[in-house]
Structures are given as structure tokens and as C-alpha cells.
Amino acid sequence: MSNDSKTDANDKSAEKQTSRSEQNVEAKQRADVNSSVTNYTDHVKSQREEPKISGRSKATGAGADAHGKGGLASAKDLLGDLAHETLAKKSDTTPERKAQLMAEIERDGYIVGKPQSIAQVPSDNETQKEKADRAWLERREQRRENHHNDIAEQLKDSLYKPRDGQTWKLADFLNRAHSPISEAYELSKHLKEGQPGKSNTLEEVIQRLQSCPWADQINIRIDGSGKFSDYSNEENTINLNPKHTSGKQIEEFVHESFHATHQFLDKLYGHGKLEKQDYVNTFVWGEVNSMLTEARVHNDLKLPGHVDFKYKDELGEDQTLHIDEFMRSHSPKDLFDFLYHAEPAKKGEKVYSQHYAETYNTYREKFNQNQPVAEAFIKQWVQKGKPASDI
């Protein structure tokens, strides 16, 4: 809603003949899922006379309920106690299909990369939450140890794994999907400060998604056709690329979730129309803060590679800025100055400042139309005890 309204089993007996030793051999043969480092050049900060390229599209429109294909309704009866019995009725459960399914599960992982075992030592003065967290982690460890022998769990993974072309409602995606994002989030919630996999920032981003006034309108589209993930205001949809690594999917989800839940409603509509420069600065700062949030989660989870921004240098050569490294020696304002003038390397994109300048007139023209909707969302946010300026 940057400038527009957001109103808008496999047969049980048939497969038992596979011995445990054979399964162990298969498990050992599964391959583990597998950064480039480029130097940042300071001179790209200089202003360009004619900016050529920009960031994400922020045009907005009526929110659409795009859920449908790829939903969970058809999968529900295959879960729980009936999982094996139902799977036995399916025609594609050949040994080859089972091997393929198990390979997919092993490749994609239960969480990011190769999971670590997280030891939990009980203490005499545990709180109820600490006991519950330790029990959850122990059950999780047991599930992973037995996963290669548990056809029901494998079936759940297969049915609830987001696949290319599906669109999920936000609540279904966060609560039911077997994705790197939901797995990382659930794990983080049950960990203590300093434990591997703990990220307060990831938890805050997802909790904000769940509580924002238009959460019921947000969709997650699994789309492997593009190189980048993005957030579409027109469709209230976060687009994720399933071909990216688990870690990269988490980073991109965090970045786009920031955009989805930071619409600057109070600043844009709560105090009259903004001047053009204030308007442009507001949205460029939005790009800065989305990248900083992404970098914090990257660092918290110790994800491989870097949080990158690819741009053209003064000679027109492609360069890469590692945001996570850049911020070790620079301030947010330095990043703002860089992004304000940097020419993205992606063909067809404009410099952020130019892009947002071009949307300013639409903001002014539709101000009176959008203001009542914005005020209603602000009121809902404040009623949850949040500051008006934070939405």
C-alpha cells in the first residue's frame, strides 16, 4: 500500500520388506545441501547525472485474495493416524517414487542446512516455559533421528512443502507449511539467548506480520520463474523463489516482510501531504531498514554467504555490496547515501530515489481516496498498543 489502498503409505506391508540396513545405506548416500566475496568500492557514492535503474515496484492496488491452487485442503485427510493407510491407496508409491521423496526431504532439510543437535540440560529451577521448550527440542531431535524410517513424517513433509506455483495464505504458510522459514521461526522461539538458531529479529518480523492490520490479506506465492523475491503491494503478496537456498529464502522472506508491514501510513496520511523530498526519503529509508533487518537475521542465524546488493559502478561494471560486512564499519546513514544514488545491476530497475520520485504524483492525486483507509488501519494498530508512527 505504498501509494494506493490495501482494502483492496505407501502400502505398509509392501514396504516393510526393506531392511534397516538398506535404509541406512541409502541415508549415507544422500548428499548434504551445500559465498562469494567481492570487495566494495567507495567511489560509487558519487552522484550520477542521469540515474538509470531502481528497486522494487511499490505501485499499489486493491488487495486480492489469491489463495486457491496449492492449498492444504486436499492434503488434510492424508495426515495423522490415517497417513499410512491413505498412502497405500496412492498409485505412485513405487520404490522409485519413495526413494525420490526421501531424497527431496533430505535435500531440502528439516531446517536450514545440516541441522545441529542442540543439547538441553535440565536444571532444578527451570521455569514452565523452559521445561516446555526443552521438551519441544527433545521431541524435535527424536523426530529427526527417526525421520528416515518414519513414512508418516516424510508424507507430511511432502504434502506440506511449499512447491513452485502454489499460493498460500499467510497463516497457513506460517503455521502449517514445512518451509525453511517456518522451521527456523519455530526453532528460534524455543531457544535461549546465544544458542545456535536463535534470532529475536526473525521472531519480531514474523510476529509483526501476524499482527499487522492487513495480515488476513497477505499471501505467499512460491514462484521459481524469477531471479529475485519481492513483495507486490498490488496483490498483497510476498513472492518467494523456491530454487534459492534455505538460508537465502529466510533472508528474502525477512526483507519482503519488512516491506509488507511497514507502509508509513501515519507519516504519509496522518499529517497532511508530504513534500516530495520527504516522500522520497521515507521510502529510501524503508529500503535501508529492510536490508538492515535482513542482515541482522543473517548474522543471528550465521547463514552462509552474504546479504548482497548488486549495482553498477561508475564504469558500468557489475559490483556487489555485502550489506552485512559494510555495516561493520558504516552507519545506516552511509547506507542511505549509497542506496539513494546507486544504480542497481538488475536490468530495467531504476535508482531508488528516481523510482520513488516518479510515484509521488500518484500519492498526491489519490491522497484523499486513501487517507480514510490509512486512518482505519492506523486505528487498528494503535488499539493493539502499538505507536501510530510504527505502521
Structure description:
This protein is an alpha+beta fold and 391 residues long. The chain has one domain. The protein is 47% helix and 7% strand. It is built from 16 helices and seven strands. The protein has a four-stranded mixed beta sheet with strand order 1-2-4-3. The chain has a three-stranded antiparallel beta sheet with strand order 6-5-7. Helix 10 runs antiparallel to helix 12 and helix 12 crosses helix 15 (352-365). It is globular, with a radius of gyration of 23 Å. The N and C termini lie close together (11 Å).
Describe, in short, the structure shown:
By secondary structure, this protein is of the alpha+beta class. The protein has 16 helices and seven strands. The chain has one domain.
List keywords for this structure.
three-stranded antiparallel beta sheet; disordered N terminus; alpha+beta; 47% helix; 391 residues; 7% strand
Unreliable stretches, pLDDT < 50, 5 or more residues? Answer: 1-92, 105-119
**SSE string, helix = H, strand = E?**
HHHHHHEHHHEEEHHHEEHHEHH
Structural class: alpha+beta
The largest pleated sheet is described as:
4 strands, mixed
Number of domains: 1
Cross-sheet strand order for the largest sheet: 1-2-4-3
Number of strands: 7
| Number of DSSP helical runs | 16
**What is the rounded Rg?**
23 Å
Helix content: 40-55%
Mean of residue pLDDT? Answer: 74
* End-to-end CA span: 11 Å
User: Which of globular, elongated, flat, extended, rod-shaped describes the shape?
Assistant: globular
Oligomer: single chain
* β-sheet strand percentage: 5-15%
